[in-house]
């Protein structure tokens, strides 16, 4: 919460509510519905919650069923009290800024409990009645803080695009399922791309490449006849010819993978050059 105090003057200007988002979640962000919900209850803050199957793994939110007013937070409950967790999407009225001191502060542990005790914090369920029917039918949420979860979140996002904006997905020879390609990317002949692939700006995919369930970021180059599954290829990386990468291999920025190598679950830090195969998952520093 400390950075909110640094921006206090900017956020308070005009007296309008403002959104705050966690950077490691992906969903179809319900900004309009959340702003409407916030105006209706008149409290100081609103957060979005989502249901989980195993609430004992999380800190859960206990709220009134009819109003959404948050009563308390319970960390990893041993008995069932709620199956709703904080989804990392908030809208606050400027009054919250008076609660936050200019020091390292946890909004979840220090600010939210006090607001809940005063009846100033409300929860809107991601697929609850506050949202429109279309959203409730296909809404999604995912914590993407880990590479394997990032790839799962990517798949969910692509499926959401298929449901709402199929015209944004890429189609063409060799494309399988949901694929998103920046218009500036170049894909060679006889490639098979997909399902569940995103290819960023300026990426070059040479002839005969197979890519599925991967993200390839801006400026990367995948050389001919390589095979990638469940990988994240960082900015400006170069993957050599006849390379096989799988099992949530992650390449940091500007990594070079030489020809004819096998990478199995490798996590490679930026600006490294890989000259030998990585047959077992490990971090390369």
From TrEMBL:
InterPro entries named among the record's database cross-references: GMPPB_C, Hexapep_transf_CS, Mannose-1P_guanyltransferase, NTP_transferase_dom, Nucleotide-diphossugar_trans
Keyword Transferase in record: yes
Keywords, in A-Z order: GTP-binding, Nucleotide-binding, Nucleotidyltransferase, Transferase
Location of the Nucleotidyl transferase domain: 1-158
Pathway, per record: Nucleotide-sugar biosynthesis; GDP-alpha-D-mannose biosynthesis; GDP-alpha-D-mannose from alpha-D-mannose 1-phosphate (GTP route): step 1/1
GO molecular function, one term: GTP binding
Domain Mannose-1-phosphate guanyltransferase C-terminal: 175-284
Highest taxon, organism lineage: Eukaryota
This enzyme's EC code(s): 2.7.7.13
SUPFAM superfamilies per the UniProt record, alphabetical: Nucleotide-diphospho-sugar transferases
Family label: Belongs to the transferase hexapeptide repeat family.
Protein name: mannose-1-phosphate guanylyltransferase
Organism listed in the record: Egretta garzetta
């Amino acid at each position: 919460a400390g950075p909110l105090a640094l921006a206090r003057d900017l956020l308070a200007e005009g007296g309008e509510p403002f959104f705050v988002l966690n950077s490691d979640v992906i969903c179809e962000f319900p900004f309009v519905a959340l702003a409407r919900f916030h105006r209706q209850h008149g409290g100081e803050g609103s957060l979005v919650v989502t249901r989980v199957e195993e609430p004992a793994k999380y800190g859960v939110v206990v709220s009134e069923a009819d109003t959404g007013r948050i009563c308390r937070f319970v960390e990893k409950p041993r008995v069932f009290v709620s199956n709703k967790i904080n989804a990392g999407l908030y809208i606050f009225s400027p009054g919250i800024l008076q609660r936050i001191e200019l020091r390292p502060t946890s909004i979840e542990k220090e600010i939210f409990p006090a607001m809940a005790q005063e009846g100033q914090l409300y929860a809107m369920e991601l697929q609850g009645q506050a949202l429109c029917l279309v959203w409730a039918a296909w809404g999604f949420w995912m914590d993407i803080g880990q590479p394997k979860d990032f790839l799962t979140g990517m798949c969910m996002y692509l499926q959401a695009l298929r449901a709402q904006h199929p015209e944004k997905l890429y189609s063409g020879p060799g494309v399988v399922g949901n694929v998103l390609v920046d218009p500036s990317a170049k894909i060679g002949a006889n490639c098979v791309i997909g399902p569940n692939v995103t290819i960023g700006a300026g990426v070059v995919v040479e002839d005969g490449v197979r890519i599925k369930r991967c993200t390839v970021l801006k400026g990367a180059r995948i050389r001919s006849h390589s095979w990638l599954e469940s990988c994240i290829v960082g900015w400006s990386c170069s993957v050599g010819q006849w390379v096989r990468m799988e099992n949530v291999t992650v390449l940091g920025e500007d990594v070079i993978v030489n020809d004819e190598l096998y990478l199995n679950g490798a996590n490679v830090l930026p600006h490294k050059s890989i000259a030998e195969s990585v047959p077992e998952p490990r971090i390369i520093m």
